[in-house]
Amino acid sequence: MIEMLPMEDEESGAELRIINASFADPYLLVLRDDSTVKIFKAIGNDEVEEVGASGLSSTKWLSASLFKSTTLDETFAFLLTPEGGLHVFAMSNMEKPSYVAEGLGFLPPILTSDYYARRSTAKATITEIIAADIGDTTSRSPHLIVSCIPSTLSHILIH
After folding, report:
1. What is the dihedral of CA 98, 142, 78, 24, to 10 degrees?
2. Under DSSP, is residue 126 helix (H, G, I), strand (E, B) or coil?
3. CA dihedral 41, 158, 152, 89 (to 10 degrees)
4. Residue 1: in which H helix or E strand, if any?
5. What residues does each domain of the chain span?
6. pTM of the model
7. What torsion do the CA atoms of 145, 43, 59, 97 make, to the nearest 10 degrees?
8. CA 6, 11, 15, 19 torsion: positive or negative?
9. One digit per residue, pLDDT tens: the chain, 159 residues?
């Protein structure tokens, strides 16, 4: 890609810094320092166009990751709110999330098949999420990797 993408606030014109970028061919997701997200799609001829994503514009985001699995046909955007809410959008429908988990920070570090929800006030401070395939060529499955304070990692198998 040769094209330069301006990152400025649409209202004030102020230049914004990119704090995170995620790629999943042909998409580029950019998380900016004002906690907004922009998604672009490569359209050929070394050019990109912004993807209309009205479902993302009304929320501030702490972390964001694009994911395209070798086992799934769809590309997904995983986004985390500052309050710890997980929102998953299919790139084919950016108007409404296909999955929402507002209490992601309340999940235990290891999530097993016999887990059931309990009342708890212990909440993890989540700082980053990344969706990725984990495994070898024989056995690979999508996982959500969650980074928490103090510097711990958890993962959740995505079904």
Report:
1. -110
2. strand
3. 30
4. none
5. 18-157
6. 0.78
7. -70
8. negative
9. 455 666 777 777 788 888 889 999 899 999 988 898 989 898 877 788 888 877 788 889 999 999 998 777 899 999 999 888 889 999 998 999 998 888 776 766 555 556 565 565 566 677 788 888 888 888 877 777 777 776 655 555 564
